[in-house]
Write a structure and sequence with these properties.
This protein has 8 helices and 10 strands. It is α/β, with parallel strands linked by helices and 259 residues long. It has a single domain, classed as P-loop containing nucleotide triphosphate hydrolases (Rossmann fold, 3-Layer(aba) Sandwich). Helix 4 runs parallel beside helix 5 and helix 6 packs across helix 8. The protein is globular, with a radius of gyration of 18 Å.
Length: 259
């Protein structure tokens, strides 16, 4: 079983006047990967709380000023592909078709490429150039490209924020399917309470100025996946618990955390 740990992660940025601003403060969290079905963890926080910076540190795109990231109890300091970051605006090269985009910087077999295209529901679009494609289409390309390197964790940076509701629902189901098929562990940074509850096995609540984890919440996946009153009651209870935690930290407002 893979495990990911963040120990005392802190990060500073220099302001225009040269003064230091602390973006992340003493971030500690631990995620145990599932042996056979993957996992889904969300970091729920308001805008400009340092969520993106935290994901970039986890994936070794940026370095922390203090603390360390451990994968399988070894310091993860060089982007090796075991942890892959997908930004809010998924990237694709408009001059390359779908196959070429997915296989960019990798050398997977034709059979593997075909499998990945099918896994993200792009069969039939292999020769399509995504220059005018929707966010959902480009995300599918980014997801397949991430899967091509055989990662243990895929980090998602508030990817649903600009998607319409229909596309969101499609991508929610896609992530569930991919999680089970490839035993992938997802970490989502989001501002949306309902989305975090709906998708996750575990939530970390993070306040801002500076970014700091204020609570860990484990979700009852069986109840939340069921239908009927029990699911609805548990959903409302969790949402109220999360709102209460943020209000206690002085964080909660309708403009910061979305319901």
């Amino acid at each position: 079983m893979s495990n990911l740990k963040l120990e005392s992660i802190s990060k500073y940025y220099l302001k225009h006047a040269g003064a230091k601003q602390k973006v992340l403060d003493d971030i500690n969290l631990s995620i145990e990967a599932s042996e056979n079905e993957g996992s889904f963890v969300s970091i729920l926080a308001s805008f400009e709380s340092g969520k993106t910076t935290l994901l970039k540190i986890i994936s070794a795109i940026e370095k922390p000023d203090n603390g360390k990231v451990l994968l399988q109890d070894e310091v993860y300091y060089n982007a090796t592909g075991k942890i892959v970051f997908i930004p809010e605006k998924p990237s694709s090269f408009p001059w390359l078709n779908v196959e070429q985009n997915i296989n960019f910087a990798t050398n997977i077999s034709t059979d593997k490429l075909k499998e990945l295209i099918g896994a993200v529901d792009l069969t039939g679009y292999e020769n399509h150039h995504p220059h005018n494609a929707s966010l959902g289409f480009r995300f599918r390309i980014s997801l397949a490209r991430a899967l091509a390197v055989g990662p243990t964790f895929i980090l998602l940076d508030d990817i649903f924020r600009r998607m319409d509701s229909e596309t969101k629902d499609e991508i929610y189901e896609l992530l569930r399917t991919v999680r089970l098929k490839f035993n992938i562990n997802f970490i989502l940074a989001t501002t949306n309470i309902s989305e975090a509850i709906y998708l996750s096995d575990k939530l970390y609540l993070m306040k801002k100025n500076p970014g700091r984890i204020i609570e860990e919440i484990k979700l009852d996946a069986d109840t939340l996946k069921s239908k009927g009153l029990n699911r609805q009651e548990r959903f409302v209870s969790l949402r109220n618990e999360i709102e209460k935690a943020f209000k206690a930290s002085g964080e909660m407002s309708q403009t910061e955390i979305r319901i």
